[in-house]
Design brief:
The chain contains three helices and 61 strands. The protein is mainly β. The strands form twelve sheets. Strands 10, 11, 12, 13, 15, 16, 17, 18, 19, 22 and 23 form an eleven-stranded antiparallel β-sheet that branches.
Length: 773
């Protein structure tokens, strides 16, 4: 069974074999986050605003909703302060200092000579204070704040409202307080592009210092505040035993923040978050990976507003301490669609990460695929590495393996696969691939076409498979991509080594759930044995559901093929396609134990409903059935009275290792049967053209001499599922049993009692074929 162990109830799994109960990671959006990214400013992000503090003043950016066409900031700068008519000395503000950050609030201070600016921030508002510890004389205190904004100021009570078409910012009444606890509401007025605050001379003369003046600033939106989660990714780091989940949140159309939160495989979601970027820069499509030796995560993103003119930036977080490096440039322009893989060995190296991206030649119009190595210290050593730079080619949407391999492999075996789409025409794309060393070295590795039929696009690639010895030790990678079938895109998977790819398979066909719906955006991870794919499937003209499924590579008649382990499980739905999903495994982070725990993976996705467009970020820990599928599915079944076609799979009895040898047992399974129905498995050496036998509503997909496990009639029970341990030495034929011989194909199907419109009849599952090694 495909198991997802989660905490918060979500939409039902709609008959899928998995149980999906989501963990809520959404608290990262609701927290106050404070960050110093290395640009000389301190940034704060609340639920209704973000703000920055630096030598040129304080900037308040209200959150007017994810559909706001842009930001509408208010910039405040203390321009002057006088007491008794005499100017106070205002020094140029130094870099701000984070005085305090606890209990969901923070204080930022900037010393300006005779006055200290302090900003107390929490998730909902900013309190701006001006503190005077010393006054050269006593008299009327007058403060002047220059304000720069496109919002319209209007007096309201003792404060101001800055009005906009999408919402307002409230600059509240100011109050003077002294050290003895006395307070006084103050007069404020708007004057020539700024605010004047006046503390009467009578209060100043009697005040015990320090004297504080403190207006409060908050946001009021005109509609529902909708933070939209646009992209998610996740990676695992082994020694710290932790998943990092990164995601972008759209504050306005051209301002996306990138946040990170965490998942502990033992204790579940961790109620903390950090800011990868909460500045006013537009960070898009974050991707992350981990470095085994340094226990570090690198998050990369495309920064800028216009595709093709962006640059790639990154930020490292050290898992043991949670400390963040300053953010840094990986490319300086004309680049996009970045992805990242992490070095999986325990050997120290400067090539801790390899970042791949799409590089635009603005002069020639070419689009190339390049890579850069990045150290866990945030360095970007060496020049850009050409991966695909053919003249006249349009190479797009690169993806790189999440990890270069497991720590026990020697350094020379640590390799990534990079995949991308190459445009043949506007409506025709091929999938290309290239293996590279962990330092980005391409010597001895040639680019090759991994798939070329119809329109194939948006590929994603797994980490390498090196555990299955029936592949003679050769590393294989799984590649998932979209392919045009008729008028819709389906999800396909193909396995590739350093030289080529074999036998792409339609995932929908293998699941026998082709509902003529658009299926998009596959992500694929390898957990040491299984390949787990998440993807989107169209549920309405605008809505999409996120699904998860698992499969294995099998060696059949000299070719590597895909065998479906489990039918798809529904994760969640979204009323639009503007969503994302991701999958990563412990194996990706360096876990190499053959135990069941090493096969865990984490799926992440945003979810919402048409009645509530606000999204929550969810996660599901996934463990695949420990027996490996060895039979590849074929043939379409007719829906049963339960609503879905019955589905067959064939599994090895061994939890890990080789395909079963002759005379070794294996398991037949069939699910999505009518509850409490009787039936039995069929076996034949030949597959056939689907036919509908008399008295049945289903299709028989076997031919020739068809044997029946008639002596083992099974009851599907309340779950609508059956299983049978078969023996290669006792396969049924019409008049006897026989032994499988190496080099034979055996084909299996399930026959079941069923009903149509209340009338008793029979039906069939789809079919599966097994190659006898």
């Amino acid at each position: 069974m495909l198991i997802a162990t989660l905490l918060l109830a979500a939409a039902p799994a709609q008959g899928a074999s998995a149980t999906v109960l989501p963990n809520d990671l959404h608290t990262a959006i609701e927290q106050l986050l404070v960050d110093a990214p290395g640009d000389g400013r301190i940034w704060a992000r609340g639920t209704t605003y973000k703000a920055s503090f630096g030598p040129d003043g304080f900037v308040y950016v209200p959150a007017f909703g994810s559909e706001a066409p842009r930001n509408f900031p208010l910039a405040f700068k203390l321009a002057s302060a006088t007491v008794g008519g005499a100017e106070l000395a205002l020094l140029q503000a130094p870099d701000p200092r984070l005085d305090q950050n606890q209990d969901g609030a923070a204080t930022v201070a900037m010393a300006r000579g005779d006055v200290t600016e302090r900003y107390h921030v929490d998730a909902l508002l900013v309190e701006q204070t001006f503190e005077f510890a010393v006054l050269p004389e006593r008299g009327e205190l007058r403060l002047r704040l220059d304000v720069t904004t496109d919002l319209r100021p209007r007096p309201q009570g003792s404060g101001f409202v800055f009005e906009g078409d999408l919402g307002d910012v409230h600059y509240g009444a100011a109050t003077a307080l002294d050290a003895a606890g006395r307070s006084l509401a103050l007069e404020q007025r708007w004057s020539e592009g700024g605010i004047e605050i006046v503390v009467p001379a009578s209060f100043v003369r009697e005040a015990e210092l320090p004297l504080v003046v403190d207006p409060v600033i908050s946001t009021a939106t005109l509609g529902t505040l909708q933070d939209r989660i646009i992209d998610v990714d996740t990676a695992f780091v082994a020694i710290s035993d932790l998943y990092q989940v990164v995601f972008s949140v759209r504050r306005s159309m051209f301002d996306h923040d990138v946040l990170a939160t965490y998942y502990d495989p033992v204790n579940g979601p961790i109620a903390s978050a950090v800011a990868i970027d909460i500045s006013s820069e537009n960070w898009n499509a974050p991707r992350n990976a981990s470095c085994y030796d340094d226990q570090a995560f690198l998050c990369v993103a495309n920064v800028g507003n216009s595709p093709g003119f962006r640059r790639v930036r990154g930020r490292v977080q050290y898992a043991p301490t949670a400390n963040l490096s300053p953010s840094f440039d990986i490319t300086t322009g004309a680049s996009d669609n970045a992805d990242v893989g992490g070095f999986g060995n325990d050997t120290s190296t400067a090539a801790d990460f390899l970042v791949v991206y799409q590089a635009h030649d603005l002069a020639s119009g070419d689009i190339d695929i390049r890579a850069r190595t990045v150290s866990s210290g945030g360095g970007v050593p060496g020049a850009a590495i050409p991966i695909a730079d053919g003249v006249g080619d349009q190479d797009l949407h690169p993806s790189i393996s999440k990890s270069s391999g497991r720590p026990e492999l020697v350094a020379l075996q640590h390799e990534y696969m990079i995949v991308w789409e190459r445009e043949v025409s506007a409506t025709n794309h091929d999938v290309w691939a290239r293996v590279v060393g962990f330092q980005g070295n391409t010597t001895g590795h040639s680019a090759f076409r991994a798939y070329s039929f119809s329109d194939a696009r948006h590929p994603d690639v797994s980490s390498q498979n090196t555990l299955s010895s029936h592949f003679a030790g050769d590393p294989y990678w799984g590649i998932a991509f979209e392919r045009l079938v008729g008028t819709d895109y389906d999800i396909f998977v193909v396995f590739a080594d350093d030289e080529g790819a074999d036998n792409a398979r339609n995932v929908s066909d293998m699941q026998d759930l082709d509902e003529q719906a658009e299926q998009l955006d596959p992500r694929i991870a390898h957990n040491g044995r299984d390949y787990i794919i998440t993807y989107l499937s169209e549920s309405s003209p605008q809505g999409f559901d996120a699904f998860l499924t698992a499969l294995n590579p099998v060696l059949q008649d000299g070719e590597v093929r895909a065998a479906q382990t489990e039918r798809r499980a529904r994760l969640a739905g979204s009323p639009t396609h503007a969503t994302s999903h991701a999958i990563a495994s412990m194996h990706d982070g360096g876990v190499s134990s053959p135990g069941v725990g090493s096969r865990l993976a984490l799926a992440v996705w945003p979810a919402s409903a048409p009645s509530d467009p606000n999204q929550v970020l969810l996660s599901g820990e996934v463990e695949v059935d420990p027996s490996r599928a060895v039979g590849t599915q074929f043939c379409d079944a007719q829906p049963t009275s339960g609503g879905r076609p019955a589905w067959i799979s064939v599994h090895s009895l061994a939890l890990v290792g080789l395909d079963p040898a002759p005379n070794q047992g294996f398991r037949l399974r069939c699910s999505d049967l009518p509850p409490h129905s009787f039936g039995y498995f069929l076996a034949s050496l030949q597959e056939g053209t689907p036919t509908t036998p008399a008295g049945s509503i289903g299709s028989l997909c076997l031919s020739g001499a068809i044997g029946r496990y008639a002596g083992q009639v099974l009851d599907s029970g309340a779950d609508g599922a059956v299983g049978l341990i078969a023996n290669f030495g006792q396969l049924p034929q019409p008049t006897m049993t026989t032994s499988a011989i190496s080099g034979e194909w055996w084909h299996f199907q399930y026959w079941t009692r069923d009903s149509a419109g209340g009338v008793p009849t029979s039906n069939f599952s789809n079919a599966a074929r097994v190659w006898i090694n």
